[in-house]
Design brief:
Length: about 80
């Protein structure tokens, strides 16, 4: 069951950054705080934005034409009986 948490004495800079982040992600301030806490405390659970950023970084690290159709087919079949 979810628990309520009240935060006091939040530094202005932290509050303004959290508020700006919530607005840019179209989330409530509460939801943005939860997402930020989850990202830090539960790092094994990547957000959709993190997964997309990771996939783009991997894609960008590959050079165009590095793999041909035969290479891709061999990779798919590798380790299969």
């Amino acid at each position: 069951m979810p628990t309520t948490l009240t935060l006091k004495n939040i530094p202005d800079e932290v509050y303004f950054r959290l508020k700006a982040s919530a607005e840019s992600h179209r989330r409530s301030l509460n939801r943005e705080a939860i997402v930020c806490l989850e990202a830090v405390l539960l790092p094994g659970r990547a957000t959709a934005e993190q997964a997309i950023a990771k996939a783009r970084a991997i894609r960008n690290s590959l050079t165009m034409g590095q793999f041909n159709a035969e290479d891709i087919d061999a990779f798919k079949r590798e380790g299969r009986p």
